[in-house]
Amino acid sequence: MVGIIGKKIGMSQVFHEDGIVSPVTIVEAGPCKVVQVKTEKNEGYNSVQLGFGEKPERLTNKPEQGHFKSGGTPFYRTLIEFKDIESELMEKGKDITVETFKEGDSVKVTGISKGKGFQGVVKRHNFKGGPKTHGQTDKFRSPGSIGQSSDPSRVIKGIRMAGRTGGNQTTTSNLKIVKIDAEKNLLYIKGAIAGSKNSIVTIRRLGK
Q1: I want to staple 165 with a disulfide (CB 3.0 to 4.6 A). Which of 13, 42, 119, 161 is the partner?
Q2: What is the pLDDT of residues 76-100, one digit of tens each?
Q3: What's the pTM?
């Protein structure tokens, strides 16, 4: 598996030679550097820790400084671990760029979905709401009944109700890389991915 960390720039569209238009999400991916390598012999599994987005030393606490200095790498704002990475990439200090991918690759993208705050059941669970007539005045977006009467005299766990919406880790699989701009470190991924603009996402290539 090949993985990289990126920042969601926004959405656009790509025109193909046959006239087809593809909606794409533009991601500024990398360059990332391998900060730490974990092996099955030492840690019990194989993985690499990638760093993305350099930051100054004054914004880095002492434990983080020691971690980065032991690997001989700059200080990074984001550290994410990728398991089952390809063996040729498991080298401390190695740079991971968009050139690791190629156009047509299938990828899965993980990000944090947009937080909506506290929402009612109509927006959160797509309830249709109550009737608009027959004396109904203030229950148009009400959830209605949420439980039984004397038996079991409680609300069953898992009942869909109002609450905090969004802000969850979301993964979208089987997306295609339509275009790669190596000079600007940009990946053009067909379709929409979770997260707001400038949010951090991870991109993993599916298969080999």
Answers
A1: 119
A2: 999 999 987 777 777 788 888 999 8
A3: 0.83
